[in-house]
Amino acid sequence: METLPTQDVMDGEYSEEEECSQESGAWGRLFPLGESFIAMDLNKEEYSFGRGENCDVPFNNNGSKKHQCFQAYSKVHFKILRQTTTTGVHVFLEDFSSNGTFINGDKVGKGNKQVLANNDEIGLALKKNKAFMFMDLVDANDSDIPDEIKERYTLTKTLGRGACGEVRLAFAKGSCEKFAVKIITKKKFTTGGKHAVNLSKQVMSEVNILKALKHPCIIGIEDVIDTPEVLYIVLELVEGGELFDKVVSLSQYDEPTAKLLFYQMLLACKYLHEQGITHRDLKPENILLQSDEKETLIKITDFGLSKFVDAGSMMKTFCGTPTYLAPEILITAGSGTYTKAIDAWSLGVILFICLAGYPPFSDERKDMDLPKQIMGGHYTFPKQYWKGVSEDAIDLIKKLMTVDAAKRITLADALQHPWFKDEDMKVKSQKLMYPDQDVMGPPSTKPKSSPKKRPMAPSSDEPEAKRRGSCDTNSPPTTPTT
Ligand code: ADP
Ligand code: MG
Questions:
Q1: Which of 109, 141, 387, 452 has the fewest CB atoms within 10 Å, i.e. is most exposed?
Q2: Which is nearest to 125 in space by CA: 138, 108, 140?
Q3: Into which CATH architecture does domain 147-236 fall?
Q4: Ligand 1 atom 1, closest CA
Q5: Distance CA 451, CA 352 (A)
Q6: What is the pTM for the complete model shown?
C-alpha cells in the first residue's frame, strides 16, 4: 500500500492505553502525544519510525481501531539518530517522509535533518498530528524537582507562566496520562516568620476546598503534592490554549461565539460563587480553551489562591496594568474588603474584549490615566467598532461594568439577561459541557445564524503588548467618554 497524501486522510481517533517504558542507560525518551503512539526509551544510536514493518518502531494500525492518519505515513517516515559531531554529541531527526515530519510545528522536509532538543514535539504528516515529545535525558535538568514528584510524574515543557510561578506539561508514570502541573514556590505566599507557616497551612486548606470543586468549566485538580519549599498542583490538562491568544488571533469573536463562551464563563463563576469562592483574577489568560475549535468548552483556571497574595501585591498580580481590576480595588488601593462583585466587573471587561478585540481602558489616553478611567467607569462603545454588536450585549457589559459594586449585576442575574434568551446557544453549551448526556433543546424556529461581518478593531502587531492589558499598540479609540 502506498503512502497517501495528507489531504486524503483525516485526523484519527483511536486510543490504546500503553505503559511508559523506562530503561536504564537511555539517553532519550519519547512520550506519546497522539493516542496511538507509545512511550519508549532510546538507547541505540539510530531508530527508524514508519508504517513499514521493518522499522525499529513500526507504527501500529491498531487492528480494528481506525487510525485515519496511518495511510499518510511513509514506510520509513523519520529517523532519530544520535551522532558525535565536532561540537559534541547531538540528537537529530531526519525526515524521510512524503507528507512531512514536523518539529514544534515546523516541517523538517524530506531529506533534511534537524537537531532534536529537549521537549521538542514531533508531528507526523499533519502539523496538528502530534506523535511524540522528545525528552533529552542527558540534557534535562530536573535536579531541583523533588522525588515525591519524580516518582509519580515526569515534568516536561513549560505551558505557561503567571504570577504564582510556572505550569508544566507532565506525564504520569505508568500510564503516560498528560497533566498540567502548577508549581508554586511557597515564599510567594508568605511574608516571613511565624505568619509564613500559618499561611502555608491556609493555602493547603484552600487547595483542599478547590479539590472538591466539580464543574465542566472549571479546571479539575487531580492531585496536590506539598513539599517544604514548593507546592505542586496537578491539574487536568487542556490543549486549546488561552482565550487571550484566541482573541488576538481572531481579532475579536463574532457575537454568537462570544455568547457561547461567555455563558460558560458565567455558569462556572456562578458555581464558584455558590461555593463561597471569589476568583479575583479573571482575565483572558486564565480562561483556557479545550480545543482549537471556535465553539469550544472553556475552563477557568487559577482560582481561589490569589487571596493569599498580600494586599499590595494583589495589584501587582496584574503585572502593572489593572485592566481587569474592579474600581473598588483601585479606590481603596487594595486595602478594602471585597465582595464577589469584583468578578462580575472582570467578566464585563472580558466580554468587552471578546466582542471588540481591544480593552475598554487605554493607557494612551492623554486626558486621564488608566486607574482614573476605571474608577470613573470611563469606557465607550464607538459605533465604528460596535455597530455589529447587539444592544443586549452592550447592555449586559454596562450592567457588569457598573462602578458601584452594590448596583452591579450579580452573575445569577446576568444569566437571566435578555442576551441569553437564545435556546440554540444553550443547547450547544450543554452539549459542550455534558457531551455524554442527551441534550434535547426545543426545536429551532429560526434559521441558523451566521456570524456577522464586523469592522476590524484596531489590530495589534505585537500580541504581547495586549497581554496583561497594555493598550500600547492596540488602543481603543480615544473618543471622549461620558
Ligand atoms: P498563574 O497563577 O501563575 O497565573 P495559571 O494557573 O494562570 O498560573 O497558569 C499560567 C498559565 O499556564 C495559563 O495562563 C495557561 O497558559 C497555562 N496553564 C495553566 N493551567 C493549565 C492547564 N490546566 N492546562 C493547560 N495550560 C495551563
Ligand atoms: Mg494566571
A1: 141
A2: 108
A3: 2-Layer Sandwich (3.30)
A4: 162
A5: 17
A6: 0.75
